[in-house]
Specification:
98 residues; mainly alpha; 48% helix
């Protein structure tokens, strides 16, 4: 993953949520990082945990950077949250385009 973006995500994620735009910036960085990871690893979807109301990490993938990025994705990009949560590449790219 892009180390500069990971460093920026780490910095932004430590800001007080009241800081103007910090959550929005973290979500955008997370989207970019997960898209990059999925593209580089030729994955169209990633299963994510179902232990939390909003998924916090990828299943069957041992990558701390990916897990951190998944934790900052907006709730609306996850599919099948109630049954078997998954992140799909096409959904992420559509969301990022606006």
């Amino acid at each position: 993953m892009n180390q500069n973006k990971m460093d920026e995500l780490a910095t932004v994620s430590q800001l007080d949520p009241q800081t103007l735009g910090s959550e929005t910036r973290a979500a955008k960085l997370a989207l970019e990082l997960v898209i990059e990871w999925m593209t580089n690893n030729k994955r169209t979807e990633i299963l994510v945990d179902d232990e939390n109301p909003i998924p916090c990490y990828a299943l069957s993938v041992d990558d701390d950077d990916l897990d951190q990025a998944v934790g900052w994705l907006p709730r609306s990009v996850f599919d099948d949250l109630e049954t078997k949560p998954v992140v799909r590449l096409n959904r992420l790219t559509e969301y990022l385009k606006g």
